[in-house]
Amino acid sequence: MIPRTIFDSDHEMFRDAVRKFLEVEAVPYHAQWEKDGQVSREIWLKAGKQGFLAPTVPEEYGGVGADFRYNAIILEECSAAGLTGIGWGLHSDIAVPYIIRYGTEKQKQKYLPKCVTGEYITAIAMTEPGAGSDLQGIKTTATKSGDDYIINGSKTFITNGKMADVVVVVTKTDPSAGAKGTSLFLVEAEAPGFTKGTNLEKIGMKAQDTAELFFDNVRVPKEAMLGGEGRGFIQLMQDLPQERLSIAIMAIASAESIIKQTVEYVSDRKAFGKPVSSFQNTQFKLAELDAEATALRVFLDKCLELHIEEKLDTATASKAKMLCSDFQFKTANECLQLHGGFGYMWEYPVARAFADSRVQSIYGGTNEIMKLIIARQLFSS
Questions:
Q1: CATH number of the domain at 123-230, please?
Q2: Crossing angle for the helix pair 314-339 and 280-308, nearest 10 degrees?
Q3: pLDDT in tens, 1-10
Q4: pTM of this prediction?
Q5: What is the reported pLDDT for 178?
Q6: For the domain with range 9-120, which CATH number is right: 1.10.540.10, 3.30.450.20, 3.30.930.10, 3.30.300.30?
Q7: One CATH from 3.30.450.40, 1.10.760.10, 1.20.140.10, 3.30.43.10 for 234-380
Q8: Which of 76, 128, 243, 256 is catalytic?
Protein backbone atom coordinates (compact mmCIF):
# COMPACT_ATOMS: atom_id res chain seq x y z
CA MET A 1 0.00 0.00 0.00
CA ILE A 2 1.32 3.44 -0.94
CA PRO A 3 1.75 5.57 2.22
CA ARG A 4 -0.38 8.70 2.40
CA THR A 5 1.81 11.74 3.01
CA ILE A 6 -1.00 14.30 3.03
CA PHE A 7 -1.68 13.67 6.75
CA ASP A 8 0.63 14.03 9.76
CA SER A 9 0.52 12.50 13.25
CA ASP A 10 -1.95 15.11 14.54
CA HIS A 11 -4.34 14.23 11.73
CA GLU A 12 -4.05 10.54 12.51
CA MET A 13 -4.81 11.17 16.20
CA PHE A 14 -7.88 13.09 15.09
CA ARG A 15 -8.84 10.23 12.76
CA ASP A 16 -8.60 7.75 15.62
CA ALA A 17 -10.86 9.93 17.77
CA VAL A 18 -13.45 10.24 14.97
CA ARG A 19 -13.41 6.50 14.32
CA LYS A 20 -13.90 5.60 17.97
CA PHE A 21 -16.69 8.16 18.33
CA LEU A 22 -18.55 6.75 15.32
CA GLU A 23 -18.17 3.18 16.57
CA VAL A 24 -19.82 4.07 19.88
CA GLU A 25 -22.22 6.91 19.05
CA ALA A 26 -23.32 6.28 15.46
CA VAL A 27 -22.87 2.76 14.10
CA PRO A 28 -25.14 1.06 16.70
CA TYR A 29 -27.99 3.48 15.91
CA HIS A 30 -27.66 3.70 12.16
CA ALA A 31 -30.27 1.05 11.35
CA GLN A 32 -32.85 2.92 13.42
CA TRP A 33 -31.94 6.20 11.75
CA GLU A 34 -32.56 4.55 8.40
CA LYS A 35 -36.04 3.61 9.55
CA ASP A 36 -36.62 7.12 10.91
CA GLY A 37 -35.37 8.76 7.73
CA GLN A 38 -33.03 11.03 9.69
CA VAL A 39 -30.36 10.90 12.34
CA SER A 40 -30.96 12.12 15.88
CA ARG A 41 -30.37 15.67 17.04
CA GLU A 42 -28.35 14.15 19.85
CA ILE A 43 -25.63 12.87 17.53
CA TRP A 44 -25.16 16.38 16.14
CA LEU A 45 -24.76 17.86 19.61
CA LYS A 46 -22.36 15.11 20.67
CA ALA A 47 -20.31 15.60 17.52
CA GLY A 48 -20.23 19.34 18.17
CA LYS A 49 -18.80 18.80 21.65
CA GLN A 50 -16.00 16.71 20.13
CA GLY A 51 -15.13 19.32 17.50
CA PHE A 52 -16.31 17.18 14.59
CA LEU A 53 -18.61 19.78 13.02
CA ALA A 54 -17.32 22.54 10.73
CA PRO A 55 -13.68 22.31 11.86
CA THR A 56 -12.65 25.07 9.45
CA VAL A 57 -14.66 27.72 11.35
CA PRO A 58 -12.19 30.30 12.74
CA GLU A 59 -11.48 30.37 16.47
CA GLU A 60 -13.12 33.77 16.95
CA TYR A 61 -16.46 32.17 16.01
CA GLY A 62 -16.12 29.10 18.22
CA GLY A 63 -14.30 26.81 15.81
CA VAL A 64 -10.74 25.53 15.73
CA GLY A 65 -9.68 27.08 12.43
CA ALA A 66 -8.43 23.76 11.04
CA ASP A 67 -7.65 23.14 7.39
CA PHE A 68 -9.79 21.01 5.11
CA ARG A 69 -7.79 17.85 5.83
CA TYR A 70 -9.78 17.50 9.06
CA ASN A 71 -13.02 17.68 7.07
CA ALA A 72 -11.60 15.01 4.76
CA ILE A 73 -10.85 12.71 7.70
CA ILE A 74 -14.41 13.00 8.98
CA LEU A 75 -15.77 12.26 5.50
CA GLU A 76 -13.50 9.26 5.11
CA GLU A 77 -14.35 7.74 8.47
CA CYS A 78 -18.10 8.25 8.04
CA SER A 79 -17.96 6.70 4.57
CA ALA A 80 -15.78 3.78 5.65
CA ALA A 81 -18.28 3.03 8.42
CA GLY A 82 -21.21 3.15 5.98
CA LEU A 83 -22.54 6.38 7.53
CA THR A 84 -22.79 8.30 4.27
CA GLY A 85 -26.21 9.68 5.14
CA ILE A 86 -25.25 11.32 8.41
CA GLY A 87 -25.40 14.82 6.87
CA TRP A 88 -22.25 16.31 8.42
CA GLY A 89 -20.49 16.68 5.07
CA LEU A 90 -23.22 18.88 3.64
CA HIS A 91 -23.13 20.99 6.80
CA SER A 92 -19.37 21.28 7.31
CA ASP A 93 -18.05 21.18 3.75
CA ILE A 94 -20.73 22.93 1.75
CA ALA A 95 -23.23 25.10 3.64
CA VAL A 96 -21.17 26.50 6.53
CA PRO A 97 -18.26 27.55 4.26
CA TYR A 98 -20.62 29.96 2.48
CA ILE A 99 -21.17 31.76 5.79
CA ILE A 100 -17.43 31.71 6.58
CA ARG A 101 -16.48 33.08 3.17
CA TYR A 102 -19.31 35.48 2.35
CA GLY A 103 -21.08 36.26 5.63
CA THR A 104 -21.06 39.66 7.27
CA GLU A 105 -19.53 39.95 10.72
CA LYS A 106 -23.02 39.98 12.22
CA GLN A 107 -24.02 36.82 10.30
CA LYS A 108 -20.85 35.03 11.35
CA GLN A 109 -21.33 35.94 15.01
CA LYS A 110 -24.95 34.81 14.91
CA TYR A 111 -24.66 31.51 13.06
CA LEU A 112 -21.17 30.05 13.14
CA PRO A 113 -20.83 29.31 16.88
CA LYS A 114 -24.05 27.29 16.84
CA CYS A 115 -23.03 25.55 13.61
CA VAL A 116 -19.93 24.34 15.43
CA THR A 117 -21.84 23.06 18.47
CA GLY A 118 -24.55 21.36 16.43
CA GLU A 119 -27.29 23.62 17.78
CA TYR A 120 -27.78 24.87 14.23
CA ILE A 121 -27.97 22.38 11.37
CA THR A 122 -27.52 23.91 7.93
CA ALA A 123 -28.62 23.11 4.40
CA ILE A 124 -28.17 24.69 1.00
CA ALA A 125 -31.17 24.98 -1.30
CA MET A 126 -30.08 25.01 -4.95
CA THR A 127 -31.97 22.29 -6.81
CA GLU A 128 -35.53 22.91 -8.00
CA PRO A 129 -38.08 20.63 -9.65
CA GLY A 130 -37.19 22.17 -13.02
CA ALA A 131 -33.53 23.01 -12.42
CA GLY A 132 -30.95 20.53 -11.22
CA SER A 133 -27.40 20.89 -12.52
CA ASP A 134 -28.50 23.99 -14.47
CA LEU A 135 -28.17 26.60 -11.72
CA GLN A 136 -28.93 29.41 -14.14
CA GLY A 137 -32.38 27.92 -14.65
CA ILE A 138 -33.67 28.42 -11.11
CA LYS A 139 -37.08 30.08 -10.72
CA THR A 140 -37.16 30.95 -6.99
CA THR A 141 -37.29 34.72 -6.73
CA ALA A 142 -36.36 37.28 -4.10
CA THR A 143 -38.17 40.55 -4.81
CA LYS A 144 -37.13 43.75 -3.07
CA SER A 145 -39.81 45.27 -0.83
CA GLY A 146 -38.60 48.32 1.08
CA ASP A 147 -35.74 47.17 3.27
CA ASP A 148 -36.79 43.52 2.89
CA TYR A 149 -36.91 40.83 0.24
CA ILE A 150 -39.87 38.56 -0.48
CA ILE A 151 -38.88 35.01 -1.44
CA ASN A 152 -41.19 32.80 -3.50
CA GLY A 153 -40.51 29.40 -5.01
CA SER A 154 -39.65 25.82 -4.12
CA LYS A 155 -36.61 23.59 -3.83
CA THR A 156 -36.26 19.83 -3.90
CA PHE A 157 -33.80 17.06 -2.96
CA ILE A 158 -32.44 19.23 -0.14
CA THR A 159 -30.07 17.34 2.16
CA ASN A 160 -30.69 18.15 5.85
CA GLY A 161 -33.88 19.79 4.61
CA LYS A 162 -36.12 18.55 7.42
CA MET A 163 -33.65 19.15 10.24
CA ALA A 164 -32.12 22.41 9.02
CA ASP A 165 -32.31 25.45 11.29
CA VAL A 166 -30.88 27.80 8.69
CA VAL A 167 -30.78 27.35 4.92
CA VAL A 168 -28.63 29.03 2.28
CA VAL A 169 -31.25 29.70 -0.42
CA VAL A 170 -30.31 30.35 -4.04
CA THR A 171 -32.66 32.91 -5.60
CA LYS A 172 -33.09 35.21 -8.56
CA THR A 173 -33.15 38.85 -7.48
CA ASP A 174 -33.17 39.88 -11.15
CA PRO A 175 -34.65 37.13 -13.36
CA SER A 176 -33.82 39.11 -16.52
CA ALA A 177 -30.08 39.25 -15.75
CA GLY A 178 -29.27 35.56 -16.12
CA ALA A 179 -26.43 34.37 -13.89
CA LYS A 180 -25.77 37.96 -12.79
CA GLY A 181 -29.23 38.10 -11.23
CA THR A 182 -28.55 35.30 -8.74
CA SER A 183 -28.33 36.06 -5.00
CA LEU A 184 -28.02 33.98 -1.85
CA PHE A 185 -30.02 34.41 1.37
CA LEU A 186 -29.86 32.91 4.84
CA VAL A 187 -33.38 31.81 5.73
CA GLU A 188 -34.20 30.52 9.21
CA ALA A 189 -36.54 27.57 9.70
CA GLU A 190 -39.13 29.55 11.65
CA ALA A 191 -39.50 32.29 9.02
CA PRO A 192 -43.24 32.81 8.27
CA GLY A 193 -44.15 31.30 4.91
CA PHE A 194 -41.19 28.89 4.88
CA THR A 195 -42.42 25.29 5.07
CA LYS A 196 -40.80 21.90 4.70
CA GLY A 197 -42.36 19.04 2.80
CA THR A 198 -42.34 15.41 3.84
CA ASN A 199 -39.08 13.53 4.04
CA LEU A 200 -38.40 12.17 0.55
CA GLU A 201 -38.10 8.39 0.28
CA LYS A 202 -34.88 7.51 -1.52
CA ILE A 203 -33.32 4.25 -2.73
CA GLY A 204 -30.17 4.94 -0.71
CA MET A 205 -28.74 7.16 2.02
CA LYS A 206 -31.87 6.37 3.98
CA ALA A 207 -30.65 7.88 7.25
CA GLN A 208 -30.15 11.25 5.57
CA ASP A 209 -33.17 13.53 5.68
CA THR A 210 -33.94 14.95 2.25
CA ALA A 211 -36.89 17.24 1.72
CA GLU A 212 -38.73 19.68 -0.48
CA LEU A 213 -38.74 23.29 0.73
CA PHE A 214 -41.45 25.83 -0.04
CA PHE A 215 -41.24 29.62 0.12
CA ASP A 216 -44.55 31.46 0.08
CA ASN A 217 -43.99 35.20 0.43
CA VAL A 218 -41.18 34.64 2.91
CA ARG A 219 -40.09 38.08 4.07
CA VAL A 220 -36.46 38.41 5.07
CA PRO A 221 -34.51 41.56 5.92
CA LYS A 222 -31.84 42.77 3.52
CA GLU A 223 -29.32 41.74 6.19
CA ALA A 224 -30.21 38.13 5.38
CA MET A 225 -28.54 38.40 1.98
CA LEU A 226 -25.30 36.46 1.84
CA GLY A 227 -22.43 38.07 -0.05
CA GLY A 228 -24.10 40.84 -1.99
CA GLU A 229 -26.84 41.16 -4.58
CA GLY A 230 -26.12 39.51 -7.91
CA ARG A 231 -23.03 37.75 -6.58
CA GLY A 232 -24.67 34.39 -5.96
CA PHE A 233 -23.67 32.59 -9.15
CA ILE A 234 -20.02 33.57 -8.77
CA GLN A 235 -20.09 32.40 -5.15
CA LEU A 236 -21.60 29.07 -6.16
CA MET A 237 -18.96 28.54 -8.85
CA GLN A 238 -16.15 29.34 -6.42
CA ASP A 239 -17.39 26.87 -3.82
CA LEU A 240 -18.47 23.97 -6.04
CA PRO A 241 -14.90 22.54 -6.38
CA GLN A 242 -14.86 21.87 -2.62
CA GLU A 243 -18.27 20.18 -2.82
CA ARG A 244 -17.08 17.97 -5.67
CA LEU A 245 -13.86 17.14 -3.83
CA SER A 246 -15.96 16.10 -0.83
CA ILE A 247 -18.04 13.75 -3.00
CA ALA A 248 -14.84 12.21 -4.40
CA ILE A 249 -13.42 11.73 -0.90
CA MET A 250 -16.58 9.95 0.22
CA ALA A 251 -16.54 7.81 -2.90
CA ILE A 252 -13.01 6.44 -2.54
CA ALA A 253 -13.31 5.88 1.21
CA SER A 254 -16.50 3.89 0.65
CA ALA A 255 -14.98 1.90 -2.21
CA GLU A 256 -11.85 1.04 -0.23
CA SER A 257 -13.96 -0.10 2.71
CA ILE A 258 -16.17 -2.33 0.54
CA ILE A 259 -13.15 -3.89 -1.19
CA LYS A 260 -11.68 -4.75 2.21
CA GLN A 261 -14.96 -6.21 3.45
CA THR A 262 -15.39 -8.22 0.27
CA VAL A 263 -11.89 -9.70 0.56
CA GLU A 264 -12.84 -10.88 4.04
CA TYR A 265 -16.21 -12.23 2.88
CA VAL A 266 -14.91 -14.25 -0.08
CA SER A 267 -12.13 -15.66 2.09
CA ASP A 268 -14.71 -17.14 4.47
CA ARG A 269 -17.50 -17.97 2.02
CA LYS A 270 -17.28 -21.37 0.33
CA ALA A 271 -18.62 -22.57 -3.01
CA PHE A 272 -18.06 -26.01 -4.54
CA GLY A 273 -16.16 -27.00 -1.43
CA LYS A 274 -13.55 -24.24 -1.44
CA PRO A 275 -13.32 -20.55 -0.55
CA VAL A 276 -14.75 -18.15 -3.14
CA SER A 277 -11.43 -16.32 -2.90
CA SER A 278 -9.67 -19.28 -4.51
CA PHE A 279 -11.40 -18.71 -7.87
CA GLN A 280 -9.43 -16.74 -10.42
CA ASN A 281 -12.41 -14.57 -11.33
CA THR A 282 -12.71 -13.43 -7.72
CA GLN A 283 -9.01 -12.71 -7.45
CA PHE A 284 -8.86 -10.83 -10.75
CA LYS A 285 -11.96 -8.73 -10.03
CA LEU A 286 -10.66 -7.64 -6.63
CA ALA A 287 -7.13 -7.11 -7.96
CA GLU A 288 -8.49 -4.77 -10.65
CA LEU A 289 -10.58 -2.83 -8.16
CA ASP A 290 -7.70 -2.54 -5.71
CA ALA A 291 -5.36 -1.29 -8.43
CA GLU A 292 -7.86 1.35 -9.57
CA ALA A 293 -8.52 2.40 -5.98
CA THR A 294 -4.79 2.90 -5.42
CA ALA A 295 -4.44 5.07 -8.51
CA LEU A 296 -7.49 7.17 -7.66
CA ARG A 297 -6.39 7.54 -4.03
CA VAL A 298 -3.04 9.01 -5.15
CA PHE A 299 -4.82 11.41 -7.53
CA LEU A 300 -7.36 12.37 -4.89
CA ASP A 301 -4.72 13.08 -2.25
CA LYS A 302 -3.04 15.36 -4.77
CA CYS A 303 -6.36 17.14 -5.29
CA LEU A 304 -6.69 17.54 -1.53
CA GLU A 305 -3.18 18.96 -1.38
CA LEU A 306 -4.01 21.43 -4.15
CA HIS A 307 -7.20 22.43 -2.35
CA ILE A 308 -5.33 23.14 0.88
CA GLU A 309 -3.03 25.39 -1.16
CA GLU A 310 -6.10 27.00 -2.82
CA LYS A 311 -4.95 25.74 -6.22
CA LEU A 312 -7.67 23.19 -7.02
CA ASP A 313 -9.34 24.34 -10.24
CA THR A 314 -12.85 23.54 -11.36
CA ALA A 315 -11.87 21.07 -14.09
CA THR A 316 -9.58 19.06 -11.82
CA ALA A 317 -12.26 18.88 -9.11
CA SER A 318 -14.72 17.75 -11.78
CA LYS A 319 -12.34 14.98 -12.86
CA ALA A 320 -12.05 13.80 -9.27
CA LYS A 321 -15.80 13.82 -8.73
CA MET A 322 -16.55 12.02 -12.00
CA LEU A 323 -13.85 9.36 -11.77
CA CYS A 324 -14.26 8.60 -8.08
CA SER A 325 -18.06 8.47 -8.02
CA ASP A 326 -18.16 6.24 -11.11
CA PHE A 327 -15.57 3.97 -9.50
CA GLN A 328 -17.52 3.85 -6.25
CA PHE A 329 -20.60 2.54 -8.05
CA LYS A 330 -18.53 0.09 -10.09
CA THR A 331 -16.91 -1.22 -6.91
CA ALA A 332 -20.18 -1.62 -5.06
CA ASN A 333 -21.71 -3.39 -8.05
CA GLU A 334 -18.79 -5.80 -8.55
CA CYS A 335 -18.46 -6.53 -4.84
CA LEU A 336 -22.19 -7.12 -4.46
CA GLN A 337 -21.91 -9.72 -7.24
CA LEU A 338 -19.10 -11.47 -5.36
CA HIS A 339 -21.36 -11.68 -2.30
CA GLY A 340 -23.96 -13.60 -4.31
CA GLY A 341 -27.49 -13.56 -2.93
CA PHE A 342 -26.33 -12.25 0.43
CA GLY A 343 -25.13 -9.09 -1.29
CA TYR A 344 -28.73 -8.26 -2.08
CA MET A 345 -29.70 -8.35 1.59
CA TRP A 346 -29.95 -4.96 3.30
CA GLU A 347 -28.21 -6.25 6.43
CA TYR A 348 -24.96 -6.60 4.48
CA PRO A 349 -22.90 -3.38 4.15
CA VAL A 350 -22.33 -3.99 0.45
CA ALA A 351 -26.09 -3.69 -0.21
CA ARG A 352 -26.20 -0.33 1.52
CA ALA A 353 -23.02 0.75 -0.28
CA PHE A 354 -24.58 -0.16 -3.62
CA ALA A 355 -27.74 1.85 -2.93
CA ASP A 356 -25.85 4.79 -1.43
CA SER A 357 -23.36 5.00 -4.29
CA ARG A 358 -25.90 5.60 -7.03
CA VAL A 359 -26.57 9.24 -6.20
CA GLN A 360 -22.89 10.19 -6.15
CA SER A 361 -22.77 10.62 -9.92
CA ILE A 362 -25.91 12.78 -9.81
CA TYR A 363 -25.64 15.40 -7.07
CA GLY A 364 -22.99 18.09 -6.94
CA GLY A 365 -23.54 18.37 -10.69
CA THR A 366 -24.16 15.24 -12.74
CA ASN A 367 -21.15 13.45 -14.17
CA GLU A 368 -22.34 14.48 -17.60
CA ILE A 369 -21.90 18.09 -16.49
CA MET A 370 -18.45 17.17 -15.17
CA LYS A 371 -17.54 15.98 -18.68
CA LEU A 372 -18.73 19.26 -20.17
CA ILE A 373 -16.57 21.21 -17.72
CA ILE A 374 -13.54 19.06 -18.48
CA ALA A 375 -14.14 19.32 -22.24
CA ARG A 376 -14.52 23.09 -22.00
CA GLN A 377 -11.05 23.32 -20.50
CA LEU A 378 -9.64 20.98 -23.15
CA PHE A 379 -10.96 22.99 -26.08
CA SER A 380 -10.29 26.44 -24.63
CA SER A 381 -6.55 25.85 -24.29
A1: 2.40.110.10
A2: 160
A3: 789 999 999 9
A4: 0.95
A5: 87
A6: 1.10.540.10
A7: 1.20.140.10
A8: 243
**243 among known catalytic residues:** yes
In this prediction, residues 247-260 reach a mean pLDDT of 98
